[in-house]
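Record 1 of the preview.
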Amino acid sequence: MLWPLTVAGVLLGGAVAGVSGGILGGVLGHALDRHWGLRRWSQLPAQLARWLGLRPDFNQVLFLCLGRMAKAHGRVTPQHLQLARELMQQYRLEEPQRLAAMADFNRGKQPTTRIERQLQRLCRQQPGRGAELLDGCWRMALVHGQPSAVALRLLEGWADLAGLSKAEQQRLRQRHQRHQRGSAAPVATGGGLQRAAALLGVDLDAEPAQIKRSYRRLLSRHHPDKLMSAGASEAELAAAGEQVHRIQQAYEKIRRYRGFR
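->
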């Protein structure tokens, strides 16, 4: 195993301040290696790009938004923190990733942290994940019942940045509010892996390329905007929105289980 920033710290510190500088540089570099989970030199460019905000990581932006959403209620409560931990478990974050996610959550609470630019850049690079990110934010907004006025403004603004249509935003809001009232079960937790694979029309051990093709084909078939142009009724559009959400959740469940991007 090669710790890239450890090696760089030793070399740079040694060149500047001799043996003592090399030791100090190695310690600092190793701390960064462990914090970012770096094991190879090839991982360094992507991590630096994420750190600079040039290539936002989904988990990073998600937990920044979750921290800001929790703070929108005035103070962060144990219930907010518990939901953050549940989402870490849902996304199967390992210990270094959990520490980074909690650091992002805490940074998101700070009003000086600029979230919107990273959110917009993420949704441009990964346009299919905007609804997934907003789904988590709605869950955080409803931890203590109805969301605050500040939380609602954030949700609306972030949905616009994510490229969600007004119809999609309304369906997302209605779905979570119905769940909050107890009249509907949460889609994200319904069914297992086999049911998710059946929804996508693939085998659980199918090739990732085949799973992706099936996912995109189903999204195209059921997308409300496409049905709207064909003159679908409001009831049909609402049903299509629910189906799209189920498809997205099924795909994410299988993607995380199989470990592909």
